[in-house]
Amino acid sequence: MADMYLPGSMVLVLILFLSSVVASYASAGDADPVYRSCVENCEKTGCVEKTCFKYCKVPVNGASVEGAWLMQEPLYLRWKEWDCKSDCRYHCMVKREADRESLGQKPVKYHGKWPFKRVFGFQEPVSVACSVFNLSLQFHGWLSFLILVYYKLPLRPQNRSTYYDFTGLWNIYGILSMNAWFWSAFFHSRDVELTEKLDYSSAVALVGYSLIVAILRTLNVRDEAARVMVAAPLIAFVTTHILYLNFYELDYGLNMKVCVVMGVTQLLLWAIWAGVTSHPARFKVWAVVFGGGLAMLLEIYDFPPIWGYVDAHAVWHATTVPLTYLWWSFIKEDAVSRTAKLMNRSKDKTEPKKAQ
Hints:
By secondary structure, the chain is mainly alpha-helical. It has ten helices and two strands; from the N terminus they run ααββαααααααα. The chain has a two-stranded antiparallel ribbon with strand order 1-2. Helix 1 (9-23) packs antiparallel against helix 6.
């Protein structure tokens, strides 16, 4: 979850939150009496028609049946398998949707999600694939950025550090982005409480950190003390919010409000900055903002999965791929531009004045 993330990460993450909040509420499918009856019967008998599930512990003569531990598969092999409740819900959903289709009725959502077809145990295979692709692009962008600033651009002769004074900030941003897409892939492959919390937590961390980067970069804050004054309260707030979601209450409504406020704030910062700066890559920022706005339409005008695999959210995951590439392209161009300016200033200070 699921998944990242407005300029850069915010275009990706904010939509992920909006869609996740909508998915958290009850849907028409799980309120269907026929579906509910099927699930209840499956949990009692362990079967949906002729399909039975070995993980359903059906009582025998009133006694619970538990498999011996030595008959169970190792933990590392169980990732592709589902528990009794999940299998009952899935196969009852498939059966109910087949009945609805034969009656000419349109698909409906079940427990906040469209009726997807599993592939090798993956719940939403296309979204998983797109999340993995985004993860690989984040890794490529992060790694190519580090190679650029440390091996291709000049370093300061005094301490061999980079001239670009936002290197550390973008380094951490890349790590948090990869973490967010990693858990997004897990969440879309298996939607359970643990993967949901990890997806939400990693995304919140990325949203909060992206706001810090937006403030520091657009306002050109270079003094370390000033950076700490900006970052400390935001880090404390985001950390408290993550702890609240994980250990007190996973409040979807509150989480959406928090992320929208942080997202809109950094969107405005980047939009204003791109409008007033003469930066050579400012048009890339505008392209990401505009592209992200178009991508939001996919979440507003939702549609059921085509062939049971590709829904609006999966298409949105695909649209974030070029946005991710474009954002890292801006970051690298920013590093080149600022390094050139700082080197010129350094030369101007060290060159002796010409004799009159």
